[in-house]
Amino acid sequence: xxxxxxxxxxxxxxxxxxxxxxxxxxxxxxxxxxxxxxxxxxxxxxxxxxxxxxxxxxxxxxxxxxxxxxxxxxxxxxxxxxxxxxxxxxxxxxxxxxxxxxxxxxxxxxxxxxxxxxxxxxxxxxxxxxxxxxxxxxxxxxxxxxxxxxxxxxxxxxxxxxxxxxxxxxxxxxxxxxxxxxxxxxxxxxxxxxxxxxxxxxxxxxxxxxxxxxxxx
Length: 217
What we know:
Layout: E1 4-10, E2 14-18, E3 21-25, E4 30-32, E5 34-37, E6 60-64, H1 65-75, E7 88-91, E8 103-106, E9 109-116, H2 122-127, H3 132-139, E10 144-150, E11 152-155, E12 161-164, H4 172-181, H5 186-193, H6 200-216
Parallel strand pairs: 6-7
Antiparallel strand pairs: 1-4, 1-7, 2-3, 5-11, 6-10, 8-9, 8-12, 9-10
Helix pairs in contact: 5-6
């Protein structure tokens, strides 16, 4: 698989306004020609709430350019650059095409898919759309995260190339579907929990689902 970089973005937390309400967030990002990624961060990029964002499992946030067309039609308005707070806006790499554990070579960096994204209400505030978050969960157009296997520089003209396809073939879209829409699928939950590459936060989420099913049984 080869993808295309549409844009690169980064930003640090700042005070933002939405419908007369102020909030602090790192969701607002500016377009960049290059990004330097380390094992724990993108240089010059940061999050406001470290309890729910950031960390080694969530260094690079990815969102598919294909979804912008859907959202702009659905919302009836154009979206701003990096409207979902992503670092990489890409095409040809949507959630049902990439799997947890897949590795991509982008520029001089090697990145590994760690989890689907679990957006928060800041998405609504930043885009002034009260129902956007719920719609993201319903569609599965969440985006996903990379952890960094090898630090390096990513430039806009670089081509993302999948260099390792995880044999389990559990896509970001599939895992999202199980968590949000098929919580009693014990077999799928078991399979997902076998993924060593799955981010620790998501392992905890699926362990809770499994424990609940065991109690119900």
